[in-house]
Amino acid sequence: MKLLSNSKIWAVAVIMLSGLVYIGSCTRDNDLIVPVKLTQPFAPNRGTNIHLPGTMTVGDPTQWKMDKAHSSVLWSSNYIGTAGLLTGRFNQFGMHDVAAAEMLNYVATGQPLLDNSWAFNEANPAQTFFSGYVQINQSNTGEPGRDGGCNISGMGTTPIVAGTQNLTVTNLAKIKSTKVEFDASSNGYIVTFDLTWQGKLAAPLTKSIVGKLNYITMTTIATATPYKVFGLQLKFQFNCRDFGITSTSIADKIDIECNMNFNNK
């Protein structure tokens, strides 16, 4: 068998070298392929609604009123810190910036102060603010023995007096917003607020808390006399040990959910 000539050997070498160069270039091209991003960045979808309480005049549709009968303030905590949830609600609460001079016992069956310490601007959170409060002795777990017993002593307050709304300093936990901002990951808002409560301390303590505020968009209720409604939902967590609560029946962290509904009847 004849050996290949030098010219043929060189031709074969050139062909093989060209193939290697081509394969190498294809490999580099593949390295430059950018993967398709399947998860797109969150795109906010907020409106321009503005809600204000005014003087809360009944029958004036420009003035929004808190619908307490359809609102709630709920709490939950782990039993003994690790077991299942303990849950409850506060029967008496409101949206009023309670001044020191207003911290009294009131002879009344309902809340004695107007729910007018709030404003909401969907597009401009800098113009949104709120204040609120709960009566600690009105915690309701559905178990009377706990509500009128260990909850009263454990929270440093006094039992309910029939026909009286107790807004005294030892029975009041208050919140007051200091900053409201857009939440970059949702249509909601990030709220910084002060939580003031005495608990089992010698005097009230104020802690800065961060929570999440959601707006339930305004809608019209089609009745014989149509009216509009909207909602605000605030969720946050705080450490009850900061306020001198030593009960081992509950965990350090308490979760709070405030569901406030409004109408313009």
Would you give an account of this structure?
This protein is mainly beta. It has two domains: 1-33; 50-263, Lipid/polyisoprenoid-binding, YceI-like (Lipocalin), CATH 2.40.128.110. It is built from two helices and 15 strands. It has helices at 6-31, 144-154; strands at residues 50-51, 65-66, 72-78, 85-90, 93-94, 105-107, 118-121, 129-135, 139-140, 164-166, 172-182, 189-197, 205-221, 227-239, 253-263. Strands 1, 2, 3, 4, 5, 7, 8, 9, 11, 12, 13, 14 and 15 form a 13-stranded antiparallel β-sheet that branches. It is globular. The termini are far apart. The mean pLDDT is 89.
Concise account of the structure shown:
With 265 residues, this protein is mostly beta strands. Helix content is 14%, strand content 37%. The protein has helices spanning 6-31, 144-154, and strands spanning 50-51, 65-66, 72-78, 85-90, 93-94, 105-107, 118-121, 129-135, 139-140, 164-166, 172-182, 189-197, 205-221, 227-239, 253-263.
SSE series: HEEEEEEEEEHEEEEEE
**Shape, per Cα inertia axes:** globular
Mean pLDDT: 89
Q: What is the fourth-level CATH superfamily of the largest domain?
A: Lipid/polyisoprenoid-binding, YceI-like
**SS class:** mainly beta
